[in-house]
Design a protein that fits this description.
The structure is a single chain. The protein has 8 helices and 5 strands; from the N terminus they run ββαααβββααααα. The chain is of the alpha+beta class. It has a 5-stranded antiparallel β-sheet. A hairpin with a 4-residue loop joins strand 1 and strand 2.
């Protein structure tokens, strides 16, 4: 699974892609200067308007976002990506852009469970409950598989130099601030809960 970071400044519409995000789109290091036009050109035609609307909303409101959509790289290969963005602040605390990461979720990463995570392996075992809860939350919110959720947690652990167990526990603790999902999501989950026994 390929992951990478991005940043976007609202004032001058300036994008910054990590080498991994550039490669996800089919470009080598320094080969292209990312722009909004280039970004949208790589979106699948059926997803392009939705992504453009999401970006417009982010620029207007400065709110965090997440988007799951398809892109087409320079070789014509279709990739499914999850893009998550948070607020980018200036030194005074003002929101000046968005920063986050891309996750290539095209393939289910089954091998991730068999990898040794260095010194974190023992914590993965002893903290299974917290990690499984965090995975479950990501599955519900992003609609990804358990393997992909675990891969994202591990990647964020490495990117932020935070122990996997701590990251999972902090994520779950932070969910209480949400006060639950919006009514539409709750209604759908209520239905699922009440009919789960009939699912085959």
């Amino acid at each position: 699974m390929r992951t990478g970071a991005f940043r976007f400044w609202f004032a001058d519409q300036r994008w910054e892609w990590s080498d991994e995000v550039a490669a996800l789109h089919g470009y080598n290091h320094g080969e292209v200067t990312p722009t909004t036009e280039l970004l949208l050109a790589h979106k699948h035609p059926e997803d392009r308007d939705e992504v453009a609307d999401t970006l417009d909303t982010v620029v207007r409101t400065g709110l965090p976002f997440s988007s799951r959509h398809r892109i087409i790289d320079t070789a014509g290969q279709l990739r499914h990506v999850l893009v998550v963005g948070d607020q980018l602040h200036d030194p005074d605390g003002a929101v000046v852009g968005t920063a986050g990461f891309y996750i290539d979720v095209t393939d289910t990463v089954t091998a991730e469970r068999h990898e040794t995570i260095g010194g974190e392996l023992a914590e993965v075992i002893t903290a299974r409950e917290a990690i499984d809860l965090a995975k479950g939350a990501m599955i519900a919110v992003y609609g990804i598989t358990a393997d992909q959720a675990f891969a994202v947690l591990k990647w964020r652990s490495q990117e932020t130099n935070t122990k996997l167990r701590t990251l999972a526990e902090n994520l779950i603790a932070g969910l209480t601030d949400f006060g639950g999902a919006e009514t539409h999501t709750r209604t759908r989950f209520d239905h699922l809960l009440l009919t789960a026994h009939d699912r085959t």
